[in-house]
Amino acid sequence: MNLTIPLVVRDGHTTLHVIMPGRISTVHQDMEAVASRHQSNEAWLRSVYKEAVEIRRYGEQASGWKPRKTMELVKELIESGWCDVIIVGYIRDIYRNPGMLWMFLFLCLDHKVRFISIYDNIDSADKSWQVMAHLGALVSGLMRPQVVELIRQKATYAFDKGSMVGKNRFGYRKLTKEEAASGKYGSVGLRIAKLPEYTAILLEMRRRVMNGDSYVVVAEWLIEEGITPGPYVEKWTGRVVKELLRDQILIGRRRYRNKMYTIVYGTGASRGEKNPS
What we know:
Layout lengths: L15 E5 L2 E2 L7 H17 L4 E5 L2 E2 L7 H12 L4 E4 L9 H13 L3 E4 L4 E2 L5 H32 L11 E3 L2 H6 L9 E3 L4 H12 L4 H10 L13 H8 L13 E5 L6 E5 L3
Parallel strand pairs: 1-3, 1-5, 2-4, 5-6
Antiparallel strand pairs: 6-7, 8-9, 10-11
C-alpha cells in the first residue's frame, strides 16, 4: 500500500502516536502470530514515515464477533485525543462483526484519527476509503461461513468414522493418530481414551451425589482437594459437576452436536438450542 496523503501528527503532538491492534481467534493459535503482524505493520510504517513515532501494540486471543478488553482500551485512547493513526494489517484484526467494525471506524473519523488497513488498501484519509472498507469487510465476512461449513462437514465425517473428538471431559484424553491406529486403547480409529487414574475420583463424585450432596458441595470438595478440572474449564462449579456426571461418555456413548449453535449478531455470543436429531 502506498500512501497518497502523508501521515501527519495532530496539534500538540511532537511525535506520531500510533496504535496497532491485533488478535488471534482461538486458543490453539500462537500469540506470536500477533507479534509478527505488529512487526510487519511497523516495518511498513517505517517505510512511509521517517520521523519519530510512539507505538502502542495490543493483542489478545478473542473472537472477532465480540467486544474485547484491548479494543476498549484502544477506544479510550482514541477518545482521549492521544492517537493519531490506527494501523492494522487486515481489517479483521479489529473485528469480523460488521456492526462493531463500522462503529469503530466511525469512532476514528469522529475523533480525527486516521485508520489504515495495509493489505486491504484502506486509508480513511483517501476519498475512496468507504468503498475499500466495504470490500474489506465483505471479504472478511465471507470467509467465516465458508470456514464454519467446512469444519462442520469434516467433523461430521470424522465422527461417523469414529475419530472425531471435541472438548475432552475430565478423566479423558485425546489420542494421537498413531495411538488411535494401533487399537491399543479401544477400537481402531477412536481418538479418545480414559485416564485410569481419574476413575476413583469420578466414582467418589458419584457416591457423594447419590448420598445426597449437592453438585455445588461436590465442586467445593474437588477444589479443597486440589483436583484440577478438564482443560476447557477454569474451575469446578455445581454446573460443571452436574454436566460431567450426566455426560453419556461415562457409559461409553459418544455424542456429537447435542446443541445447534447460532450467532447472536448484536453481541457476538452464541445461542445453543437442543438438536432434535
